[in-house]
Amino acid sequence: MDEIEVVVAHKERTTLRVGDVFLKIDAVPGRLDAEVEAMALAPVPTAPVLWHKPQVLAIGALPGKALGRLGEPSPASKAAWAATGAAVRRLHEAPLPPRPGRDVSDLPRQIDEECAWLASSGLVSPDVVARNREIAQAVLRPWKPVFVHGDLQITHVFTDNDEVTGILDWSEGAQGDAHHDLAILTLGHPERLDDLLAGYGTDVDREVIHAWWSTRSLLATRWLAEHGFDPAAPGCEIDVLKAAM
Fold this sequence. Notes:
Largest sheet: 5 strands, antiparallel
CATH architecture: Alpha-Beta Complex
CATH class: Alpha Beta
Structural class: alpha+beta
Strand order of the largest sheet: 1-2-3-5-4
Order of helices and strands: EEEHEEEHHHEEEEHHHH
Number of strands: 10
Helix content: 25-40%
Radius of gyration: 18 Å
Strand content: 15-25%
CATH superfamily: Aminoglycoside phosphotransferase (APH), C-terminal lobe
Distance between the termini: 50 Å
Oligomer: single chain
Shape: globular
Number of domains: 1
């Protein structure tokens, strides 16, 4: 008999694995509905939907392996990263989905609040907080919305034989900033940015990608700490903040 593996678990969401079936349970009404809709619209491979009930989603496993994990060198080849870039480009050039995505008008206030918390937390020095706050300002500029994944972590992209076999976790799939997807995918792996852009294209603003690295790390650190994760683990958010110095 297959054992039940807890893939991720916190107050908002839990994902379990039994053999080749992943069961996602979400506390937020409608979020899994939006995820299924985004998967259906995305012009890239996604995991097969086995069945879907309100706040519960069963999907099948993907062939291949994830691009990597935070805190570890990515085992994927340059070609696999380039193929990922090409897939992300197809997504960003697809027709806009109906979901508007997150309201970013409140982003300056959020950055201010998280910087204040970080500076008093002792996790990093005030100088590190101030430097990343300065870098983060570059995300506060006009941008054209595209179809984004919204949470394109390195563990969410699977490849096999240098081809993308699927992209997981579309709960944030919506209209958004293309640079955010590129930044989240290379968070903690800046050495793979050139490989990614070899497939995506170089018509991007690297300063904005760097700004999203800082912004993501500033905004996520407290949430991770309060939900049982360790933002100070090697290669994770705290290291990303310190690397900006």
